[in-house]
Amino acid sequence: MAYIELYKDKLKKNYQFLDDLFKENDIEWAVVSKLLCGNEKYLKEVIDLGAKEICDSRISNLEAIKKIDPSVQTVYIKPPAKRSIPRLVKYADASFNTEYKTIKWISDEAVKQNKKHKVIIMIELGDLREGVMGDHLMDFYESVFNLPNIEVTGIGANLNCLYGVMPSEDKLVQLSLYEQLIEAKFNRKIPWVTGGTSVVIPLLFRKQVPDGINHFRIGETLFFGLDLFTQEVVPGMEGDVFKLHSEIIEITEKPKIPIGYMEANPSGETFEINEDDYGKTSYRAILDIGLLDVSEDFLIPDDDSIEITGASSDMLIVDLGESSEKYKVGDLVSFKLKYMGALGIFNSDYIEKRVV
What we know:
Elements: E1 3-6, H1 8-24, E2 28-32, H2 40-48, E3 53-56, H3 59-68, E4 73-76, H4 85-91, E5 94-97, H5 100-113, E6 117-122, H6 137-145, E7 150-156, H7 169-186, E8 192-196, H8 201-205, E9 215-218, H9 220-224, E10 226-227, E11 232-233, E12 242-255, E13 281-287, E14 299-301, E15 307-311, E16 316-319, E17 332-337, H10 339-346, E18 352-355
Parallel strand pairs: 1-18, 2-3, 2-9, 3-4, 4-5, 5-6, 6-7, 7-8, 8-9
Antiparallel strand pairs: 1-12, 10-11, 12-13, 12-17, 13-16, 14-17, 15-16
Helix pairs in contact: 4-5, 6-7
């Protein structure tokens, strides 16, 4: 049976590294937990590290956090859907927003529940995902400031997640200037300028984050230790907080070239034949995970002589290469995971989650 392990010591090391980095730069930060897909065992590990603010894009995950520790500030980090607003107000202390109508619905619900709800308004800086356009910003804020039970606590932006637009010092200065204009026009203090996600951390190392940016929300670099500019592990951090282990259920020497007329497989893939492989065989192993759990594109075998050759819905096929003598049926093959691979694994009920 396949399972994934979280290594507590490596997670703690990464958390401490980031906590020290942000304290040195007088920046508050929150953990983005959406990768963990609400797994209570793993959420507890994060909370036990000292996380006082956790962001997620699923209300059920915020509910799980509140059950573990009601004192943790929970932040919903995408514009809310209308039908989710009663649960949003119940389980999220704050939310990211871009639509006046939605904030008005949140205000009405917060009045009903007799709660204050914090709002961070997201600004469009070029990646064309969520965000209010700069030309509309002043009118937008003026209307939101008048809503009951709404506390505007931040201005924010998101980059790199849709079209891959990278953050820059100029873009962060622009965000900071928006905050200054709003404060000056309305004589209101905006505590957070949350311009930082994992992709902004390299700019922090280069001293290219303006002083006005005072809040970061971090997931990928915490769990993978990555500099997202270079895709290399940050010196002093750990890159393999998680490890996937999958069991071999068949090993057979087989031809390298499929036999018979070929069309697209059920995933819609077509394969090109390498003529150099005609007449050759190799030892192929079948593992007990498949596309239902994770795409093979996001798996990195620990053993570099193993090559992933394909996957079906619930089986992964690997060429054992020079390692064929090392493995037998029942053995485990281990993989490091890319971010989207870990997301698939955590979202699969078929993969056991362990803490080491």
